[in-house]
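user: can you give me the structure for this one chain? tokens are fine.
assistant: on it. calling the predictor now.
[tool input]
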Amino acid sequence: MLPKAVIVVGRGSFGDPPVRGASMIPALEPVANRPIIQHVLDGFRAASINELIIAGEADTLIAVSNCLTPEDGAGELEYAICEPGLDMAATLRSVARLVGDSPCILQPGDGLLGEPVASLVHSVTPDSPDLILPVPDLTNALGDEEPGAVNGSAGLGSWERTILRPATNGSSRHVDANAEVAVFGPGALRRACELVGPEDRADLALIADRLSSAGASVRFQLAESWRRYNGDGRDLLELNRLALDALCSDVRPSLRAENRIEGRVAIHPTASARASVIIGPTVIGEGASIENAYIGPYTSVGAGARIEGAEIERSIISPGATVVHVGGRLVSSLVGRNARVFRDFSLPRAMRLWVGDGDEVALC
């Protein structure tokens, strides 16, 4: 039995996004030239899951549905409206009718797993636990212990609660997202809704604890990695890498004759490239122009962007941006919509920076 997919979307609680003009709905932030949620949908469909439910507040769902196209299978999606400010249990109650007693995979729409969703689908079997929580990094929480199943009425142990609770320091930031993806077995989501009342401010930690205390089985399963966009530009760069890892090559033959192109590279039919080196995985968007440039791995070049006489790798160049003759290689960089990065040869020689609140500039 294939599980259903529940994709939860919300609004960001952070301030100005690092990429100017970016959406305040994190799931709509573009990586690999497409909103994060489109990559999430791609992952589920690649695992043959076609029963997809998107849950969120009404205005958020309207914005999400407006960004999805028929190519994204928008007509096949179901939407579950959640009241503003509600917790995980309330979100699950809003989708319970659509899920029924089917197994389901829960995932935020602004995060990506570093492995195919099929690995989670294969974990749903007639003998699988009631709740499976993929956790990418258990080193700090477990020490030498191995993740496993929790059964019976005793509830979760101390280390299970440790890995489910948010991290409090920067060194544990990857553990912070451990309990944001979940696989519910048949009937388990409905049972979880019954065990957590409206007065509880529930998260997956409490839901897992209530299920295990009621005799359900909870298992922790190592995942390759998990990254979610929480307003940090480094999150976007990592999500961009994860999305580009699934890229398929699409380059017209004439461009291969004019440039050196290696690896998995996708260039939009309306984009141009001349006398350049392009190393994949890399995606170049509609109407973009690349000339006498080096575009290195894990780079996304947005629609209408122009790159000339520059070297770029592991970066996101947003739509309409210009990077021209910068005199050095841009690495792990975010260039916002319609921004201009160029080298000024006028005298007197000096650096001229326009840096907004919260922006970051590294001079090497």
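assistant: here you go. Residues 30 and 352 are 28 Å apart (CA to CA). Residues 4-244 form a domain with the Spore Coat Polysaccharide Biosynthesis Protein SpsA; Chain A fold (CATH 3.90.550.10).
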